[in-house]
Write a structure and sequence with these properties.
heterodimer, A: about 220 residues, alpha+beta, about 30% strand, B: two-stranded parallel sheet
């Protein structure tokens, strides 16, 4: 559960009306291989983070040091790199702007699922439903973003100070394809004019409280 | 059910008054906190009809009390026109919070507490000598007669930790015999024991059954009235798999879990029994007995004003002990050290706050007093100090707020030696070595140069929050083109930057100068920007990285100053100052403590940080209705006395009504927002 704890602690660094953004970017080639990038951008709260990172605790949570965060990110990088079919894994943590990224290539989206599961397993995660995040059926041209786990119960148990963190947080997903997009099931999805990309921008709180979902079924036109 | 008790207690105390029987005579002298609500004043300031009309009262308190919204508070049986008292005591190892209420209609009061039955947690009403009694839950009890009611919320403090028990020498439990009896408490707590679980090994697996019931719950009833032994029969554990090494581990784990759970259940039962005993004892004394009351204690009468609308009295020393007891009580119990409550009602400082809800302001008169001549003199010595006139000029007239303190640090150091000796002599474990501790503290006193400390920091300090100004800070964001290709961009946003000054008087200017000079040598090596600017030092921060651009340090004319304001630096170098207003000047120079807060200015500045409509509406309301806050404190008539006032604006009959109005308005704003959100979602 260390990973979840670290993510929470990192989030907890932002207090009162601060905001952060999680950006999930995936490029899927027609053969099912592609590139994945996850960005956690806390830059908008950096003045507060510059102060809080010097503290030992905030909102009752321990504040990890820069070295601890770096070490944790490196561990994630090692775990992802060990997953068969995943290559060119790169991570970075920019403490000037408080932006963390992880980038990798994959030959099948199922390998991304395995990588996510490996991270949770290595951290002894207890979250259910992380086994399957993406699905791609090349024969039907259907790309699916799944979300089988919920943070609603954990959110309910949080203190008000912790809840405040998510009030202005955002989640953005951008999926790009070799093939053109015919339709997307999630009503909030924007399809690029060139039909090669979709974007979904949601408030993190709406996702946590299950008012909105990141789930999406994207139908691609076969060439 | 706790909600009911809490709501009832709050209600009764939020609106009560003073005639007939004086309940102060029922408040024990050994109380650590005593709160009084003057019903006469309360009911005049905010009549019950007015309280009935507040929507937050109906939505929240009425709901918790399970009263329908048509019922008036006048008809719940409680006499709000008489004084209500609350007090905290430690009795028979239980921490008790007691509320004493006057009743005017016992049938209506019974109707009110009937809500407790609905949840099924309350037991039946029982007759006691001179009063009726009901256990609302394990920690809350109500007793009443025709004219009064007593609510006791109590928690037993000697509940033991299982692992302390497990590893203590007294533990003789084995795997086969789970005879868990609280040996230390056996003399008084023999009412509870249990039968160990029956472990059936190597039973053939049954297709439909779960393999192992790891945590069987022994269903128990609450502790009995009479001290008869109760048997707790846990469910049978069925172990179905063959006894491999792995299974053996799981079996042992299940047994250990069961033993712990049963042991904890037993501790809960012991606690419940003790709590009920204490509650009944308190009620019996209140209804029929004689209480050694705080009413005639000098330390109470000297600092409590009977005419105050509400008052709080507390014994700081007892409170500290109770805190330590509640935090570490079990530990000391495990060590064989029983809590010692030497109820000393004469020594130590006792403090009070007398609260007055006046037309345009709320006024709190604080008093601190010790009946012990030595301590009282020490208090006088600490307060024997005058603020340095040179500090006053740093208070700018349009500031957000300031805090000034002037105390005699030499006297303060001497006071600490006495307090430390007294504290150590009364602390568990350490009290056995009080003589050694006493010598150590004397040695520290010899080694420490109190005069030197007083020269370095004579005790005159001032903090001024000049302003909160918006400043631009940069951050990185992502923008997307029409094909959703992302690009990192630099943006700026406004954040509040505090402009403040902290000044400390010093008679060791040379030493302070050395400290201010010290970082110069390490600035380059440690990569921070600290420079000697000729007469002052500047610590500069990276532009856009922090809301503060620079911190300035200056030591001049017996003052060590840390400030964010270049204006203050220049003013100090040029021996000039702000045109401080006369009221602030007098307050600072004539008091040991002086504080002022310009609430409107503060809310105006903070308002720029509020992003949501709800927060903006709330801040607008607060800004329009809250006036300035002022606090002063000094030594008068041998007592440390202070006055805090909070002015109110807007259309309110008095400051008590203002609080009700404010809560109601904020509640309405939030509720309206919720309804609008729900509408938009639907």
């Amino acid at each position: 559960m260390k990973l979840t704890a670290y993510l929470l602690l990192f989030s907890c660094l932002i207090v009162f009306q601060s905001c952060f953004e999680i950006i999930e970017q995936l490029f899927l080639k027609a053969d099912g291989s592609g590139n994945f990038q996850l960005v956690v951008n806390l830059s908008k709260s950096k003045t507060k983070l510059n102060s809080i990172i010097k503290m030992k605790t905030v909102n009752g949570h321990d504040v990890p040091s820069k070295d601890e965060i770096r070490s944790q990110v490196s561990e994630i990088e090692r775990t992802v790199a060990k997953t068969p079919g995943i290559s060119a894994v790169k991570t970075s943590v920019d403490f000037d702007n408080y932006i963390a990224t992880i980038n990798c290539n994959f030959t099948k989206v199922t390998q991304l699922n395995a990588a996510v599961k490996n991270i949770y397993d290595s951290e002894k995660g207890k979250l259910k439903g992380v086994e399957k995040t993406y699905e791609y059926d090349a024969t039907t041209g259907l790309f699916t973003r799944l979300n089988k786990f919920s943070l609603a119960e954990d959110y309910k148990k949080m203190s008000n100070a912790d809840k405040e963190i998510f009030a202005t947080a955002n989640y953005t997903s951008i999926y790009k394809f070799d093939n053109s997009v015919a339709a997307a099931s999630n009503k909030e999805t924007k399809i690029a004019p060139n039909k090669k990309a979709v974007m979904l921008k949601l408030n993190a709180l709406d996702i946590i409280t299950n008012k909105k979902t990141v789930e999406n079924k994207i139908n691609l036109i076969k060439p | 059910m706790k909600q009911f008790a809490v709501a009832l207690t709050l209600f009764c105390t939020a609106a009560s008054a003073a005639h007939a029987q004086n309940y102060l005579s029922k408040v024990p002298s050994k109380s650590s906190v005593v709160i009084k609500y003057s019903g006469d004043n309360f009911s005049k300031n905010v009549p019950l009809q007015k309280i009935d009309s507040y929507s937050f009262i109906k939505q929240n308190f009425f709901k918790m009390l399970q009263i329908d919204t048509l019922t008036s508070l006048k008809n719940i049986g409680i006499n709000f026109e008489q004084d209500t008292y609350q007090y905290i005591t430690m009795e028979d190892s239980s921490l008790n919070f007691v509320t004493l209420l006057h009743l005017n209609n016992v049938q209506q009061f019974l109707q009110l507490i009937k809500g407790a039955y609905k949840t099924g947690t309350a037991t039946k009403t029982e007759k006691r000598n001179g009063f009726d009694f009901i256990a609302i839950d394990a920690t809350t009890y109500i007793g009443w007669n025709e004219i009064s009611a007593v609510i006791v919320h109590t928690t037993y403090q000697n509940k033991r930790n299982y692992y302390d028990y497990l590893y203590s020498p007294e533990n003789t439990a084995t795997d086969s015999a789970v005879a868990v009896v609280d040996a230390a408490a056996v003399a008084v707590d023999t009412a509870v024991s249990f039968t160990p679980p029956k472990i059936v090994k190597d039973k053939k697996p049954a297709a439909q059954k779960a393999p192992v019931k790891n945590k069987p719950v022994a269903k128990t009833k609450t502790a009995a009235k009479k001290p008869a032994v109760k048997k707790v029969q846990p469910e049978e554990i069925i172990l179905e798999a063959p006894a491999t090494e792995d299974n053996k581990y799981h079996i042992q784990d299940s047994i250990n879990n069961l033993k712990r759970e049963l042991w904890e259940q037993q501790q809960d039962m012991i606690a419940k029994k003790k709590q009920q005993e204490v509650a009944e004892k308190i009620m019996t004394t209140a209804f029929t007995g004689t209480v050694n009351s705080i009413e005639k204690e000098l330390s109470y009468t000297k600092i409590i004003d009977p005419a105050a609308h509400a008052s709080v009295w507390f014994n700081a020393e007892s409170l500290t002990r109770q805190y330590w007891k509640s935090m570490y009580g079990g530990l000391f119990y495990g060590m064989g050290k029983k809590q010692q409550y030497t109820q000393d009602t004469t020594t130590g400082f006792k403090s009070s706050a007398n609260i007055y809800f006046e037309k345009n302001k709320m006024r709190i008169e604080q008093k601190t007093f010790s009946a012990d001549a030595l301590l009282a003199n020490m208090g006088k010595d600490i307060m024997n100090s005058k603020q340095n006139t040179g500090l006053v000029k740093y208070v700018n007239p349009d500031n957000v707020g300031y805090f000034s303190m002037s105390i005699n640090t030499e006297a303060m150091a001497n006071y600490y030696y006495t307090v430390m000796k007294k504290y150590m002599a009364n602390t568990f474990y350490m009290n056995d070595y009080a003589d050694i501790v006493n010598v150590y503290i004397d040695l520290v006193e010899i080694l420490i140069d109190e005069k030197g400390i007083a020269d370095l920091m004579p005790g005159n300090v001032l903090f001024v929050l000049h302003d909160l100004k918006p400043t631009l800070v940069n951050y990185t964001d992502y923008e997307y083109d029409k094909d959703f290709n992302s690009k990192q961009v630099q943006k700026t946003k406004k954040e509040l930057s505090p402009s403040f000054t902290f000044i400390m008087e010093t008679r060791k200017e040379g030493f302070m100068q050395k400290i201010a000079n010290l970082p110069l040598k390490y600035a380059e090596k440690e990569h921070f920007d600290y420079k000697d600017k000729g007469g002052y030092y500047e610590l500069a921060f990276d532009s856009g990285k922090y809301p503060i651009r620079s911190l300035y340090f200056i030591v001049k004319d017996g003052k060590a100053i840390v400030t964010t304001s270049k204006e203050v630096v220049d003013m100090t170098l040029n021996n000039t100052g702000f045109a401080t207003d006369a009221d602030s000047k007098n307050s600072i120079l004539n008091n040991n403590y002086s504080l002022k807060l310009n609430s409107k200015r503060l809310m105006e500045r903070l308002g720029t940080e509020f992003t949501t409509d709800v927060n903006k509406k709330i801040s607008d309301y607060v800004m329009e209705n809250i006036g300035d806050v002022k606090m002063e404190s000094s030594l008068k008539d041998g007592i440390i006395q202070g006055t805090t006032t909070m002015n109110i604006n807007g259309n309110h009959s008095n400051s008590l009504e203002f609080f009700f109005n404010m809560i109601d308005t904020i509640n309405n704003i939030i509720e309206k927002e919720k309804q609008e959100k729900e509408k938009s979602v639907n």
